[in-house]
Structures are given as C-alpha cells and as structure tokens.
Amino acid sequence: MKQSGSTLANLDLNLLVFLRELLRARNVTRAAENIGVTQPTASAALARLRRHFDDELLVRKRGGYVLSPLALELDAQIEPLCEAAERLFTTAPFDPASTQREYSLLMPDYVLEAVGEPISRALHHQAPGAKLHIMLVTGRLPTDLVETLRLMDGLASTPNARLRVSGMRCTELFRDRWVCVVDAATVPAGWRALPAAELRRRPWVVPHHPGREYPSTAPLAPLMASLQLVPDVAVRVDSYRATPYFVGGTDRVAVVQERLARRLGDRTDLRILDCPGDPEPIVETLWWHEKHETDPGHRWMRETVREAVRDTPV
C-alpha cells in the first residue's frame, strides 16, 4: 500500500462511503446507483482507491467481478469502521421525552406474556414518542444471529452457544423455573411435585418442537437426560402461550415456565406442580450487537427494559 501523503488529514472520507458500497455491490455501476453518483464519478473514485491501495480491488473474472485478496480483507473491516464513523458524527444528547426513535426487539411469546406489559409501560412513560417493533420468535432463531442483531436493537433469549460469540453483548433480564401443568382431575390433591414416573407415562405437549424426536438442543434436554426420559410428544404447537391449553381435559403434561403458568391462575381445572429432577433455572437474557454498545439511546432502552423487568413480580 502506498503511504505518501496518506495521513487522515489528506484523505477524502467520501472514498470510504464509495469503498463500502463497492465492496457490497462488487460492481462499479451498482455502487454508483446505490450512493447516487454518476458513472464517471464512481470510476474516478475507483481509480483513486486503486492508486491509494496499490491494488486492483475488483478483478474481472468470467461472468463478472470478484474481490481481490486485499479487498476481501477490507470487506471484513469496512462495516465496523463506517458504523463507528456514523455514530461519531451523529452523536447528540439523547432525550427520551422527545425521541421518535423506533426500537426493534425479537422475543419469544413467553417473554412477551411474562414481562411485555411492564416493558411497554416503562418505555411509554419515559419516551411517549418512541416506537416499538416487536417480532416474535416462531421457531428456531435466525441462522446468522450476529448479522440479524446488527440490524435490530435486541433479542430476548436464554444463553446458548450461538449467542456466545464475538460481537455480542448481553445483560440478564430475569430468572424463571420449569413447572409441570396437568389436568387437576388426573393427580391426587396432595401432590406438590409430579413424580418422574408420571412424566414418563404421560403424553406431552411441547412448544416449537421440530419433529418426532425430542431434540438434544431443546431447553429441557438436560432434565430429560438426567431422568433417562424420552417424551412421548402428543401435541406440537408453535407457541409457548398456547401450550397449557392442550392439557385441560386430558392426561397430557406440559412443562412450561412458571411465569407463564401463573398466568393460568383462574383455571381451576389445571394444577401447577414442581418438576422432578431439579432442572436448571431459566435465565432470560437481552442480547444486542456491540455496535449499539455506546449508543446513548440504546443504552437508555436497555436500562429501562432491565429496570422494568426487575420490578415485575413473579
């Protein structure tokens, strides 16, 4: 790379914008269209970048262009660099009372049922003009979680290996525990916990179950292993909230989060019993991309959500 005169003061930072779009599009014409400049302007920018880096950057191959090895290295660096520059030049004091910002959050319906209302109230009380876009997890999490959370404000999820990667940040929201829900007529009145033998005997209602076999990645897999139990899955339903409604009037069992089960307090036909085997606690966590870490508006949202959940009784 040529170094003559290449101090920051001598650089045209407009080239950074063009370089990012060029690496995205891998085509000069499309890059020009995407940033709203003419073809001659884009060609001149490419020529300047090639002189600066002493590299072709775009290499013609059969069927189009590909990035040079150096361009591939730049491609891995350009997004965080541009995002940092955008934050630097757009940083302003954040005022919740006047913000019109929209926050996008991805969460399971169980979390929405358990703490959605206090979160909504807290955000609205402090920032009445703020917008919310709540998206429900309806099955497996997105394949590329890091890239998904680069474009969103947060995800509520229990910890797993896919989230414990570089670029992710998190804070604990609340803890919960697993309980069993059964039809009251199918258990003795004095039972406080459901025996393991009953879990083995009864057919199960399971949320977000992908197929016939109970997956090793399921939240209750460690409990199943400790009890040497393979659930007989009778009902699969793509909702945590709907799970208990397939228990009443049957001998089925649903193992659900206690905060969700307590919402059924007016259902006298159902019983909530402790699980056998002392399952691990549920640790619901808010995850976000590191690009949001120092954003004042995002920090306010994280702290407000965490405080609202902390003050919510089980």
Automatic annotation (TrEMBL):
Domain HTH lysR-type per the UniProt entry, residue ranges: 11-68
Protein name: LysR family transcriptional regulator
Native species: Saccharopolyspora terrae
PROSITE patterns per the UniProt record, alphabetical: HTH_LYSR (PS50931)
Any Pfam family matching the protein: HTH_1
Domain of life: Bacteria
Family from the record: Belongs to the LysR transcriptional regulatory family.
PANTHER family linked to this entry: HTH-TYPE TRANSCRIPTIONAL REGULATOR LEUO-RELATED, TRANSCRIPTIONAL REGULATORY PROTEIN
Keywords: DNA-binding, Transcription, Transcription regulation
Molecular functions per Gene Ontology: DNA binding; DNA-binding transcription factor activity
InterPro entries according to UniProt: LysR-type_TF (IPR050389), LysR_HTH_N (IPR000847), LysR_subst-bd (IPR005119), WH-like_DNA-bd_sf (IPR036388), WH_DNA-bd_sf (IPR036390), YidZ_PBP2 (IPR037402)
